Amino acid sequence: RPPPPAAPAYESREFVVYFPFDQYVLTTEAQAVVQQAADYAKGGGATRIVVTGHTDTSGSDAYNRRLSERRAKAVADGLVGMGVNATALAVDWKGESAPAVATGDGVK
């Protein structure tokens, strides 16, 4: 008699959500990525999910800090709305101080 199939291995995984320039509302494409992340988190019983918002270097630092906060919170709210336990979420934002992709100043 063969052994039962092994349960799928859940490991730390990164999901990247993109936003249109100067926006923080989840697009249809972004919602699909958030859904994939939510399904993965729930399937693996995730106990810690880190959401980090970024922006580009166009605009002021203070403005970009606020925009990256709104982006991170939009993703976190989306995850919770899809059944992820809010207590597992750690939400952070970087503004333009740590862009997801390094660029010169003022680059969209």
Brief rundown of the structure:
The protein is of the alpha+beta class.
Structural category:
alpha+beta
SSE run: HEHE
Count of individual helical segments: 2
| Helix coverage percent | 25-40%
Spatial ordering of strands, largest sheet: 1-2
How far the N terminus sits from the C terminus, by CA atoms, comes to 59 Å
Instruction: Tell me, rounded to a whole number, the average pLDDT.
Output: 91
Task: Indicate the low-confidence ranges by residue numbers.
Answer: none
Summarize the biggest pleated sheet: 2 strands, parallel
Strand-residue fraction? 5-15%
Number of DSSP E strands: 2
From the spread of the alpha carbons, the general shape counts as elongated
Rg over alpha carbons: 16 Å
Question: What do these coordinates show?
Answer:
With 108 residues, the protein is α+β, with helices and mostly antiparallel strands. The chain contains 2 helices and 2 strands, in the order αβαβ. The chain has a two-stranded parallel ribbon. The longest helix is centred in the middle third of the chain and has 21 residues. The chain starts with 27 loop residues before the first helix and ends in a 15-residue tail after the last strand.
